[in-house]
Amino acid sequence: MSPRDDAKPPRPDREGSGGKVVAAVIGGLALLAGGGYAALALTAGDKVPRGTAVSGVDIGGRTQADAVAALEEGLAERESGRLRVSVAGSDAEPLRLSPADAGLSVDHLASVEAAGGERTWDPRRLWDYYTGGDDLEAVVDVDPAALDALVTRLDDEAGAPAVDGEVVFGPAGVSTVSPQQGRALDAEEVREALEAAYVAERRADRRVELEPVVVEPDIDAADVQAGLDDFANPALSASVVLRFDGTPLRLQPADYREALSMEPVDGELEPRVDTEALSALVDSMTTSDDPVDATVALVDGRPQVVPGRPGVSYDPDDVAADFLDVLTRREGRREVDVEATVARPDFTTKDARALGIRERVSSFTTYFPYAEYRNVNIGRAAEIVDGTVVKPGETFSLNDIVGERTVENGFTTGTIISDGVFVEDLGGGVSQMATTTYNAAFFAGLEDVEHKAHSVYIDRYPVGREATVVWGAVDLRFRNDTDHGVLVDTAFSDSTPSSQGVLTVSIWSTKTWDITTRTSERYDYTAPATQTLRTENCLPNTGYSGFSVDVWRYFRRPGEEQLVKQEKIHTDYIPSDTIICRPPAGAGRG
To answer: Is the pTM of this model over 0.70?
Structure first.
């Protein structure tokens, strides 16, 4: 057999070609199926599944927009209607509420989307569309703030807070307050009930009766009894002895019982003692004094050190803790040693001597015309400031020392300047004290921390070298930047209808500076205006011009000619307007 006899023609690859045909057929079928599914999805679009109802409103088969419109129309009456809300067990009349009162509103679009009214390729949604929808409830939005306000309102009208039990210490001994259950509404239950009633189809279903829940008190009867057994009764069973550095002090239950209490903490009553009341009781039964700091005062016209005084000292918190601990012990063991020490003054006699307050280093006097309010207010401010000691590095504040100008603080109504206009207010005239003190500190060479000139110039004061104060807004402050203490001394004389009043402020210390001053000519004058006021406290005034002025302060060492430093103080005064007073609008009309 020749090789040619064995050769056979090649067989066609039937298996490969057949597979391609099958794949083509399957692909074609898949394409046809996909096209059909796409056609179904396009036909459904964003329509709501057929047969769908939301809170009883038929929206099936509609596009999303049409379904929203149908839902708005179908629920309009219910959304605008009122709800009748009552609380079970309450005698109060039921509330007729608009949905807005409860913070309720229907989200129509969300309701339609929840019903399937949105464009999607989800086969489950397409199945629902072609096989029928469901009966659903509308999506209701609730404003938490409005709901909380409604729950609070209903609780106030129909609820009752729980009452904690108490153990009370009083003049007659110990007594108790019985605990009581309370009633309150559960906000989540209220929300669910209101949501259901809001979109209910039947009018009867729009009536809501809320059932309060029982609120238990934090402190119940068992807690009260435990408080009596564990603390209250033992505490008042016998006297307590406190030993101060070996000296016994016996306190009887009638003396201390009103300093005791029991407070609720984490569902239990815990004993408390009023530290301040106990300390007052201890102090009333002892002869020891608190320590008194040393100081410097003028005696017969000369500065003199007033020695400090030590006192017996104890820690009130430690005493209270020891006292509380011993209260529950049985009789015969109700004693405790209290550590007491001799308390030395914070500022000793030696410290006062070291201040070096030896001589008057400056003094300034101002005068004022008669007015009884000036006598009262300037005199009171001078009285308070008199004897003030300013230690090295400390800052003097007129407002802090004098305090608020009130009737209780000894001040009366007088004339002040407000926005360039003279009006009446409490404390009028105190700026006389500010100006006089400012000049005394000025010539003592003390550091000017804060001062403000009057808005308009008052001619009884040195031009450009005066000060005003306003409680809570404008202060006079100077710092003692020397190495010595400063004593502020005041002398005051009342004005009379025939004589001026006199105020002198003197600074006592050790002289650090020789101070000289210079004042410029007035410049940049501004003309006054005329105002007609119809206010109750209007004061007439003849106007005068405003201007600017400069003042210099020169510092030299005592007895030396060399200038060490200088300061320039610039002041702008506004015009004092002419004020014409007219009756307030409507005055005299009946």
So the answer is: no
